[in-house]
Amino acid sequence: MVGVALGAVGVAAVIVLLGFSAFFSSSETAIFSLPAEWFERQADAGDPRGAVLKGLHDDPHRLLVTLLVGNNVVNIAISSVVTVLIASYLPAGPAIVVTTLCTSVLVLVFGEIVPKAFGLGNAETWSLRVASPVRLVERVLSPLITLFDGVTRRMNAYISGDGSIEKPYTE
Questions:
Q1: Which long-range contacts (CB under 8 A, 24 or more apart) does 55-60 make?
Q2: pTM listed for this prediction
Q3: 160 or 170: which carries more pLDDT confidence?
Q4: Which residue among 59, 110, 147, 155 has its CA within the 20 to 30 Å range from the CA of 89?
């Protein structure tokens, strides 16, 4: 009975984590698909969400790092939970294969492809809706975001002479 309860908790955790993965993926696509002028108009329109969104968009590198850190932490957690669930039923070798396949399908379909299509199709409304939650994530994870922000800027500047990992999104 305890194993069934833990399994149910694990499945519920994966569903919640997939929701967070979808949030980060859809937010990234929605926000970075919009032109810079749109953010200016939203901030000038008087909607507080527009001002928050413009503030996020004003530092696209940090915004991208925030979304990528959030998404990767969530996706790694999904993999960890699925591994524990499957490893309780299968020996190690097959568990690795099944975990990799299951996690890949779950994350690609429900955490990446469908959410990104949603974000692209609803970019303006979704960007405004996620502005405050993304800002909250950026503040809560600030030490981690600041670390990765600094490291990636330096590494990218060293490797390519330009620290802007977000450039393909903003050109």
A1: 55/135, 56/31, 56/131, 56/134, 56/135, 56/138, 57/31, 60/32, 60/164, 60/166, 60/169, 60/170
A2: 0.88
A3: 160
A4: 110
Task: Determine the pLDDT at residue 142.
Answer: 95
Residues with Cβ within 8 Å of residue 62, at least 6 apart in sequence: 138, 145, 149
pLDDT for the residue 40? 92
Burial of 108 (0-12, 13-18, 19+ CB in 10 A): exposed
Cβ partners under 8 Å of residue 27, min gap 6: 67, 119, 126, 127, 130, 134
CA distance 88 to 82: 10
pLDDT in tens, 112-156: 999 999 999 999 999 999 999 999 999 999 999 999 999 988 888
